[in-house]
Design brief:
Layout (H helix, E strand, L loop, with lengths): L8 E5 L6 H10 L3 E5 L2 H6 L2 E4 L5 H10 L2 H10 L4 E4 L1 H4 L2 E6 L2 E4 L4 E7 L7 E5 L19 E5 L1 E3 L15 E7 L1 E9 L2 E4 L7 H13 L2
Parallel strand pairs: 1-2, 1-3, 3-4, 4-13, 5-7
Antiparallel strand pairs: 5-6, 7-10, 8-9, 11-12, 12-13
């Protein structure tokens, strides 16, 4: 008798900010065993942790800290356990965010600042292409002209992390442009993130989430 492959356990961390039900449905659609929770032990023991985020940087950070999400993310990454951030869930992984001249400390997993987009039309809302590295695992199997769904007014405009050890795999940074270039996605060891919403990006977003699950 042929045995089925066990589904990967993924937790969507529920700290009060983010399209958690959309993320839950999208992950289940591509074959993950999904649970939405803020339970510390469940989030720590899952094979993958997804951190969503919608709204203001400061509010997301406050909610995340109150739910002990900062501890969960830090402990998981210290043990090499996969974490993926989406939208503001990506932004809070950087050192700081500046909104309306107010600076808020982020998780500082990556150095850098989240600041306002400088474009004729803000927010950046709708479909856009990205420029991914050729050896990207996140975008594997996806055409260069695929479009992804963005909704944001702030972004990271400069990638600051430098890897001096040649034995380490350099972070894979994907860019997009809306008025100016900004970081659209990052793959850095167990920590991956997207500024766009894969759960709202149709078949391309489903392929991207499937690529992440395949690495768990």
């Amino acid at each position: 008798m042929e045995l089925s492959t066990p589904r990967k356990k993924v937790v969507v961390f529920d700290y009060g900010f983010g399209n958690i039900r959309s993320a839950e449905r999208a992950l289940a659609h591509v074959g993950a065993d999904v649970e939405v929770t803020r339970d510390y032990d469940t989030a720590m023991n899952a094979e993958g942790l997804l951190v969503p985020g919608v709204g203001a940087f400061a509010s997301c950070m406050k909610g995340l800290r109150e739910a002990r999400g900062d501890w969960v993310v830090g402990r998981r990454l210290a043990g090499g356990r996969p974490v993926m951030g989406i939208c503001v869930g990506m932004q809070i992984l950087f050192g700081r965010g500046i909104e309306h001249d107010v600076e808020t400390e982020g998780l500082d997993e990556w150095p850098g600042t989240v600041g306002p987009l400088k474009a004729d039309i803000v927010p950046h809302m709708g479909w856009n292409t990205v420029e991914a590295p050729q050896d990207s695992r996140l975008f594997a199997g996806l055409d260069a002209d695929e479009r992804y769904y963005f909704v944001h007014s702030y972004a990271v405009h400069q990638w600051e992390l430098e890897v001096s050890n040649p034995a380490m795999r350099a972070p894979q940074v994907t860019w997009a442009t809306h008025g100016e270039p900004f970081v659209a996605a990052v793959e850095n060891g167990p920590l991956w993130a997207t500024q766009f919403h894969p759960e709202k990006s149709g078949d391309a977003g489903a392929q991207l989430l499937s690529n992440w699950i395949d690495t768990l």
